[in-house]
Amino acid sequence: xxxxxxxxxxxxxxxxxxxxxxxxxxxxxxxxxxxxxxxxxxxxxxxxxxxxxxxxxxxxxxxxxxxxxxxxxxxxxxxx
Length: 80
Prior knowledge:
Layout: E1 8-10, E2 16-18, H1 19-24, E3 28-31, H2 43-46, E4 55-63, E5 69-78
Parallel strand pairs: 3-5
Antiparallel strand pairs: 1-2, 4-5
């Protein structure tokens, strides 16, 4: 069975999503330190996040006029 982009993708929740579905369900996550400054670096290297891994974010979400979702994260928890 094929999706809009020609292939289905599996994810940790067991849902079948197309690549287009995943692109439409993304958010920018800015991780901040205790001083409120954005932490620099790649989350894969800094926190050990793997592709399609479930990440639980604690923070404040905002949506701009273009519909982009940004989360300013004060906590990050990795599901293993």
